[in-house]
Amino acid sequence: MKRNERLSAKDRRLLKETLKELNRQGRLQEEKLAKQHGSTSVYQHSINVAYLSLWLAGRLPLRTDRGALVRGALLHDYFLYDWHKKDDGHRWHGFRHGKTAARNAKRDYRLNRLEEYIIARHMFPLTVLPPKSKEGWMVCLADKWCAAEETVRPFFRIFRKRGNPHK
Ligand SMILES: [Fe+2]
Ligand SMILES: [Fe+2]
To answer: What GO molecular-function term can you cite, just one (predicted)?
Structure first.
């Protein structure tokens, strides 16, 4: 089963439509130019986080604002620079980029408060202030999970190749 097929048809459509809308309105495409973890771009990482956030929301017995959840997840790393490049402006990236992403997203999109806080506080517990909403907690959790998966996945690929001499 493909990963995306684990979402309901409604959630799949929401993810697709929101991504299309954000791509049309702002600079989301620029996230394709910078890597986030391993070989995963910031753009793909954001889609992964949105997917997992929706998956989580579908399994928890909580009412969630799915629209804000997906927009917040897709824009949570909208900092628009390559943090691997040495630059004074990228210092303390881990601590600062939530706020930078929220500021950029507010400039390029019409955000509500819920979406703004999802983005600004997704780096908890590295940053002191925790998420303010259940949607914020979902994105925060999904982000950690995706970051770990994207970081270790390339190593598993190497092991798999080494284990099979015909690959
Ligand atoms: Fe982040
Ligand atoms: Fe992230």
So the answer is: hydrolase activity
- Its pTM stands at 0.90
Predicted confidence band at 1 (pLDDT cuts at 50, 70, 90)? very low
For position 36, what pLDDT does the model report?
A: 85
Q: Residue 37 and residue 2: Cα distance in Å, rounded?
A: 22
What total number of domains does the chain contain? 1
Query: Could you list the residue range(s) of the whole structural domain that residue 10 is in?
Result: 3-163
CA of 79 to the centre of ligand 1 (A): 9
Residue 18 Cα to ligand 2 middle (Å): 18
Torsion of CA 92, 93, 94, 96, to 10 degrees: 80
CATH number, domain of 75, equals 1.10.3210
Distance CA 110, CA 144 (A): 26
- Ligand whose nearest atom lies closest to the CA of 44: 2
| Ligand nearest to the Cα of 123, by number | 1
Residues 117, 138 contacting (CB under 8 angstroms): no
Q: Which ligand is closest in space to the CA of residue 120?
A: 1
Which of 123, 109, 127, 156 shows the shortest CA–CA distance to 49?
123
Give the Å distance between the CA of 98 and the centre of ligand 1. 6
